[in-house]
Design a protein that fits this description.
The complex is a heterodimer of chains A (327) and B (343). Chain A is α/β, with parallel strands linked by helices and 327 residues long. Chain A has 12 helices and 12 strands. Chain B has a domain of 85 residues. In chain B, 48% of the residues are buried. Helices cover 32% and strands 22% of the residues of chain B. The chains are: A alpha/beta (327), B alpha/beta (343). At the A-B interface, helix 7, helix 8, helix 9, helix 10 and helix 11 of A face helix 7, helix 8, helix 9 and helix 10 of B.
Chain lengths: 327, 343
């Protein structure tokens, strides 16, 4: 088993805004090995995006990041910005949801890729161009010589996302974070981009963090899954184990609420009442307790620890689901 | 019996301006679309970005009027009607939009938002309107004493969408056109709103024209499903039959691309992944608009546009060379489109 390229330990992110203190990420721990795909799944406000932006040093000044995130032994938390600049985009790169807004509309695609290449390695313009064309072929853009000279608006959404992936890969990063990278794309384009990421991962050995709200993406494309709720990891397991032996009632509720192709029309979806808790005033016990069908009185008072209950399978619940048992 | 809604040969196009304000081209958003919708029935329209599904929804409610074609609602032709006569004719047709914040006036209180259509159509006096607003908020699961005085930004996305639904059902509509009504909501909230729409449908006998890009979601709410591709319907049929044995190659690819919730099933098929980029709606291919991405395409597909024809009970397919029907094996354990699409 290879050594982890990324070790995140007890990562916390807090936002202080006008006297209000929002605990967006509340102690997140995980490891990522080379060539693996980890999915971080959660709803809006679960902390999935904030936690990965913290790794990239991309949070605003109102954020306080504590804990540890070591990339190949180098501590990223607390790293000064001028030093971070050498790692961001080089060792750890990110692809965002909206490729239209991530690309400069007034610059040719090729220029944007060569600029990214030359930002991290001092190569001649001709060599950078050769590398850019290679990258465009690598992300399977047809006719790279033509696309090199085009502007982003001349490309489709799927192609723009391929360009973003080419830019992210320009410096052979160890870790690639895809933050809802296919959410804005159509389902057929999404399948194409996901297949591309899987192929690049096995060819280049890049580790991938897949941030998404979609459990289906995790089931189809991830090796391991972390489920986050209200700033905390609540379940963590290899994908097959997670879907075969789901323990955390929240994960179960999430899976049950997704409309499925195999479900009959007009059937009532299992409903979880209420809304996620306010991150300004988190309850002392389990944060999912007010909405949980399995909750008992003690869930309100004491928070279940996030520990490895079975080999490789972590969860935070006093009354976990048993195999095959409904909520 | 006449249908509640009869849409015939609806066409809508947009002119795009090119460099310097010159005419750049024409987007063929909706090209000759026809369908019926019966009272109490839900028709789901599913399609990818740029397929024209939202434009079709808007053409149905005459905002904007379609360029040509006919939309008959409750027996009255809507195309060509203007002003008050149009307002009267489509009183029983309402719409719910995707963005719950953008579709509600941010400065109004919840009660004002729900009451407005009642005032607009001169429904009752102030007292009866207030009672009706309270009833409506109760129906969508919002306590009027707690939420009535709030403004949209003091509500969550799901609550905003409940307000939009309360407003839509205020005038006892027969048809509610829903354009991606739950796409911006998180999964657990989405399930709550879907169940609410389902409950209102049975309680009030509503019909929905339900637009979405999400195939599983459309199946969940629909009696019949129409698959839209580049401005045209390529397959229409009963939800169960269409998902069990899709006959149009595009429907097969769509179903094969949905990520499965079962990690033991292989992800999307090679064929779906290889299907390439959709053509531009500004220059759709001749004949069948799917032929450039279709593994079954032949010369005929470029020469002649396939029209919808009935291949099963109520199952219409616009394809010269439809997919064969899969043999049923064992009990109907439908496993999504993926397994079948490999065949």
């Amino acid at each position: 088993m290879s050594e982890a390229v990324l070790k995140v330990e007890n990562l916390r992110v807090r936002f202080d805004r006008g006297g209000r203190r929002v605990q967006a990420v509340n102690g997140l721990t995980y490891q990522l090995r080379a060539g693996r795909t980890l999915a971080i799944i959660g709803e809006s406000g679960s902390g999935k995006t904030v936690s990965s932006r913290a790794l990239m040093g991309l949070l605003p000044a109102t954020a306080t990041v504590t804990g540890s995130a070591r990339l190949d032994g180098v501590e990223l938390v607390g790293m000064p910005e001028d030093e971070m600049r050498h790692h961001r985009g080089a060792d750890i790169a990110m692809v965002f949801q909206d490729p239209t807004r991530s690309l400069n509309p007034t610059m040719r695609v090729g220029t944007q890729i060569t600029e990214a290449i030359r930002a991290h390695s001092p190569v001649e313009p001709a060599a950078a161009k050769r590398r850019a064309l290679e990258l465009l072929s690598l992300v399977r853009i047809a006719d790279p010589h033509r696309r090199f000279h085009e502007y982003p608006h001349q490309l489709s959404g799927g192609m723009r996302q391929r360009v973003m992936i080419a830019i992210a890969l320009s410096s052979d990063p160890k870790v690639l974070i895809a933050d809802e990278a296919t959410t804005a794309l159509d389902v057929t384009t999404q399948a194409q981009i996901m297949e591309l990421l899987a192929e690049l991962r096995s060819r280049l050995g890049t580790a991938i963090i897949l941030i998404s709200h979609d459990l289906g993406l995790a089931a189809s494309y991830a090796d391991d899954v972390i489920v986050m709720y209200a700033g905390r990891a609540v379940e963590y397991a290899p994908t097959r184990i997670l879907f075969a032996q789901m323990r955390m009632p929240y994960t179960r509720a999430l899976l049950d609420a997704i409309p499925r192709l195999e479900r009959a029309s007009h059937t009532r979806l299992p409903v979880t009442p209420g809304q996620p808790p306010d991150l300004i005033a988190l309850p002392p016990g389990c944060t999912f307790e007010p909405r949980c069908a399995r909750a008992q009185p003690e869930c309100r008072d004491s928070r279940p620890p996030f520990v490895e209950h079975e080999i490789g399978h972590w969860w935070a619940c006093w009354y976990p689901c048993k195999d095959g048992e409904p909520l | 019996m006449t249908a509640l809604l009869e849409v015939r040969n609806v066409v809508h196009e947009f002119t795009v301006r090119g460099v310097g304000g010159l005419k750049g081209g024409t987007v063929h958003a909706v090209s000759d679309v026809s369908f019926d919708l019966d009272t109490g029935e839900t028709l789901g329209v599913v399609g990818e970005t740029g397929s024209g599904k939202s434009t079709l929804a808007r053409c149905v409610v005459q905002a904007p009027h379609p360029k040509s074609g006919s939309v008959r609602f409750q027996g009255t032709e809507l195309v060509g009607l203007r002003g008050r006569r149009l307002g009267r004719a489509r009183r029983q047709m309402q719409m719910v939009f995707q963005d719950p914040y953008g579709s509600l006036n941010p400065r109004w209180r919840v009660t004002d938002i729900v009451e407005e259509p009642l005032i607009g159509y001169g429904d009752g006096d102030a007292g009866s309107r207030r009672r009706r607003v309270r009833d409506l908020l109760d129906m969508v699961g919002l306590n009027p004493d707690v939420y009535g005085r709030r403004r949209p930004r003091e509500l969550s996305g799901g609550q905003c969408q409940r307000v939009a639904i309360a407003r839509a059902i205020a005038l006892h509509p027969a048809l509610v056109v829903c354009d991606e009504p739950v796409s911006s909501l998180d999964v657990l909230i989405q399930a709550q709103v879907l169940n609410l729409l389902e409950q209102l449908r049975t309680e009030l006998g509503l019909s929905y024209l339900f637009i979405s890009h999400d195939l599983a979601l459309v199946k969940q709410v629909s009696d019949r499903v129409a698959v839209m591709h580049l401005g045209q319907l390529c397959e229409v049929g009963p939800a169960e039959a269409l998902y069990r044995s899709p006959r149009h190659p595009y429907t097969v690819d769509l179903l094969a691309s949905v990520p499965s919730l079962d990690p033991n099933r292989p992800p999307a098929t090679e064929r779906a992944v290889a299907s390439g980029e959709p053509p531009s709606p500004m220059a759709p291919p001749s004949g069948c608009r799917f032929r450039t991405r279709c593994p079954r395409a032949q010369d005929l597909c470029a020469a002649q546009r396939p029209l919808l024809r009935e291949l099963g009970p109520g199952h219409l397919v616009a394809c010269h060379f439809p997919e064969p029907v899969e043999e049923e094996s064992g009990p109907p354990t439908v496993t999504g489109g993926r397994a079948r699409a490999v065949a």
